[in-house]
Amino acid sequence: MITIEKVGNPKDVWVTCPGCKQLYYIDRLFYEPQYDKIPLHCPFCHLEFAKEDSPMTWGE
Ligand SMILES: [Zn+2]
After folding, report:
1. How many whole angstroms separate alpha carbon 8 and alpha carbon 28?
2. How many angstroms does the Cα of residue 55 sit away from the middle of ligand 1?
3. Residue 18 and residue 41 in contact, taking contact as beta carbons nearer than 8 Å
4. CA of 8 relative to ligand 1 center, distance in Å
5. How much distance in Å is there from the Cα of 32 to the middle of ligand 1?
6. 3-class SS of residue 21
7. What was the pLDDT predicted at 30?
8. How many angstroms separate the alpha carbon of residue 59 from the centre of ligand 1?
9. Which superkingdom is the protein from (predicted)?
10. pLDDT for 15-44, tens place per residue?
């Protein structure tokens, strides 16, 4: 179950999809430099977007 308490988990980073504005979390690994060219994938609307395009992030 996804709860907002996950914000404190250092393993995850929360992002907001620029398309549907849904909040979800991704593995912190995606913020490593070698993943800079890999788009994030929204599980709700299936939009692919760059990390910089997320309007909000937590735990970065
Ligand atoms: Zn979305």
Report:
1. 12
2. 12
3. no
4. 23
5. 22
6. coil
7. 83
8. 19
9. Bacteria
10. 999 999 999 988 888 888 888 888 999 999
Give the burial class of 31: count Cβ atoms within 10 A of its Cβ; 0-12 exposed, 13-18 middle, 19 or more buried: middle
Strand 12-16 to strand 57-58: parallel, antiparallel, or no bridges (unpaired)? antiparallel
- Gap from CA of 51 to ligand 1 centroid (Å): 13
Task: Tell me the CA–centroid distance for residue 48 and ligand 1, in Å.
Answer: 8
Question: Rounded distance, CA 11 to CA 25, Å?
Answer: 10
Distance 33 CA to ligand 1 centre (A): 23
Q: What is the pTM of this model?
A: 0.70
Q: Could you tell me the distance, in angstroms and rounded to a whole number, from the CA of residue 56 to the centre of ligand 1?
A: 13
What is the per-residue pLDDT for 21? 94
Every domain of the chain and the residues it spans:
10-58
At which residue do the structure tokens 């620029």 appear? 18
